[in-house]
Amino acid sequence: MATLFVAAPARARIAVQLQKSSILDAFVCRRCLHGGARNARSFTSIGNSPFLQAFKQRTSPITKRCQSSATPIQTEQSPLANLAKSVSESQAKSKASSWPETNSKSVAYWLLGSAASVFGIVIFGGLTRLTESGLSITEWRPVTGSLPPRNEQIWEEEFARYKLSPEFKMLNSRMNLEEFKQIYFMEWAHRLWGRVVGITFLLPTAYFIVRRRVTSRMALRLTGICGLIGFQGLIGWWMVKSGLKDDLFEQGKHPRVSQYRLAAHLGTAFVAYLCMLTSGLSILRENRLLQNPVEGAKQLSALQNPALRPFRRMVGALSVLVFITAMSGALVAGLDAGLIYNDFPWMGQGLLPPRREMFDPFYSHTSDHSDLYWRNALENPVLVQLDHRILATTTFTAIIALWAYSRFNPRVRAAMPRSARVGAMGVVHLACLQVALGITTLWYLVPLYLASAHQAGALALLTGVFVLRGRLQIPARTLRLLERRSNIAGKSFVHAPAKPVQLK
Length: 504
Description:
Blueprint: H1 2-7, H2 10-20, E1 27-29, H3 30-39, H4 50-56, H5 61-66, H6 79-97, H7 105-130, H8 152-163, H9 166-170, H10 177-210, H11 216-242, H12 259-290, H13 293-302, H14 308-335, H15 355-358, H16 372-379, H17 381-408, H18 410-415, H19 418-443, H20 448-472, H21 476-494, E2 501-503
Parallel strand pairs: 1-2
Helix pairs in contact: 6-21, 7-10, 7-12, 7-20, 10-11, 11-12, 12-14, 12-20, 13-21, 14-17, 14-20, 16-17, 17-19, 19-20
């Protein structure tokens, strides 16, 4: 036994000596330290270093004899190994599902650019409505209509079709070809812009889905927006078609498109815009929070404060109120209701017009006048303008009250993040600007530039409210990702060992 012990290698003898003593767990050799630095590995204890583990697990006769009576030594996996295992499992799951966990930032920038394009086409569509250009093209040709008339013969044919419309017969019977070209190009540009919006959204959607740049949930959302854009084109033609029928003018009405279809057309555009905007902002927010999972989880946890719950609900209700007010403005535009009672806050001799004007039996379609109230509310220009005034005043009051609640309630003020406070103040500024534009539009008899700015202000105010709402939301999916990644990061740093002592 002594002969074998002397003949054994020197490092084996050292291993046996250290294994019998408690020094094994207190010291580590310099070679192991250098090797650990190069491999960037962490260990749960100093005794689990690879150099000493090699001594424990060496299969020499001496170590076998020395360890024959002892129990086998159990080694634990390092935190880095657990981290690598978790990452490999998550990668295997992602490969199995073939959908990424997060969306690419390029998708967010494209969505915001598409939202800006929709914002522009909404404003341009308002100009088309204000210039009475929407009924100049009397046919719907989605493909061949992309190009304007190329010679005088085709122009004459288009002008001849327009002469058959009620608008030409009742309003523009003295219009010549040059004047017709002006309103034609307005409507043609509006339709061409709509086609561009559809193509620039459909093709990138297909690319991002095929290349797996989006999650499965976002892929469904983008597909839904594509369908909404196509549906918007159908509603646009459905709206124009209503202005080409003579049955709308049996009672001597002004030739115009149906105010119901106009509100549906505008409302669908608003919904598509808001879907693009909120989707893009949510992707950017999620990527920003995931850059630092621990801090991001803290930010979302702070939003779970019970003091913010009523404020969050009120912001959601405010978004619905602003949308309804904007749709009532579409009814005002469809009926040209802004051209009557051009004063504020008065309507004639008082705050309210005469009851006979508000509930006129002329707009009832039944003999018992059972539809008197709702018909006047949606078709009587006097009552439609009054409804819009009431809704606008209510919306403005609600915005000011909501800001005051967040400003002077100490619990809400302490719980609100800075981004939400800035968003609330921005909504107040947009509301003040919108009210000023609405009043001046009435005072100056709906001039083109003020009416267009008022429509843009409505969409801008709705944008501000939805941005504020997004800053207060707590997306469950993002919260799960943050908790998972913060737990993984915590495991890799919490169990880091103390600095070992070098063995000289």
